[in-house]
Predict the structure.
Amino acid sequence: MILDGMTGRVEKKYPLLHLNTWRIGGPAEVVYWPETTEDLFSVWKRAREADIPVWLIGRGSNLLLPDEGLPGITMVTTALRKIHWGDFIVRVEAGYSLALLAQEAGERGWSGLEFARGIPGSVGGAVIMNAGAHGREIASQITNITVLGTDGTLKNIKREEIKFAYRYCSLRGQAWVLEAQLAFSRGEREQILKTMKENLANRTANQPIEKPNAGSIFRNPPGDSAGRLIEAAGWKGKRMGGAQVSEKHANFIVNNGSAKSKDVLALIDAIKNDVRTKYGITLQTEVESIQTEMTISQRM
Ligand SMILES: Cc1cc2nc3c(=O)[nH]c(=O)nc-3n(C[C@H](O)[C@H](O)[C@H](O)COP(=O)(O)OP(=O)(O)OC[C@H]3O[C@@H](n4cnc5c(N)ncnc54)[C@H](O)[C@@H]3O)c2cc1C
């Protein structure tokens, strides 16, 4: 009933493992891919009135999903892909691939997203995580964002009204990003494409992209690197169930084929405790974990 009259794909009892780069997760009761932001809003509103939980996923590249699946409606933004190219300004819907946007901007000779070519997230996920690499982050390119707030209102918010920091955005848990406007500067096309190619080669050499993973597990603590600490504590290559600390980069946990969410959570906990005991540093997770016991405010 909630999805009556809506555009876009709907699946029942759909395996969450198809919706994230870790390839982990049990069945979602209902998965919905809205094709318009109006339909996303309507479904969110109807579900809220009916007290049905709603979860939001972009490209699932920073997400651990539960083995027991998710009740209610899991909304996936990847069909929200409208884009409008202006004069060194782009207005783009939340589900657009960040890497594709970076490539397309580069092809036009627009500079600003060179760092993002290898980040496998959506634009909305990148805004909410303030995704970054190579000393740059998406916050620098944002001019304004259209959001759906937890109070049910649609708002256009200016960059200055949002607080960004390292992998932090003040909208997190407060709003869903529907659309973002990003600004670029004029650059040298060949140089931009070369920089992106080098960044990608660097990732292939240093990250375990051949196995399912969700990028960096922990944020880097101030002045140090999480990967260095985890490796020094002896965790490289260690396994719990089907989850393994990557041999290539200790801040990545890979799925060896049969990993469960509980294996990853156990490994994260063990690493955290050990690093705290050995070095007195409490690592903070960068990766998001959606677990069914989460409260309404966390899931919106
Ligand atoms: C191989 C690999 C390399 C990576 N490298 C980097 C890197 O260099 N730098 C970096 O910063 N990250 C990196 N990541 C992590 C990840 O790609 C980013 O965090 C990305 O921005 C997540 O976007 P997503 O669409 O996949 O979000 P998801 O994983 O789908 O969701 C993450 C969180 O954001 C929320 N969310 C998603 N979309 C929206 C929206 N529209 N509005 C509000 N909330 C939303 C979700 O509810 C969830 O809480 C990497 C991941 C992988 C697998």
Remarks:
- Residues 21, 56-63, 77, 94, 119-122, 124-126, 128-129, 131-133, 176-177, 207, 209, 213-215, 288 surround flavin-adenine dinucleotide (CB under 6 Å).
- The longest strand covers residues 175-183.
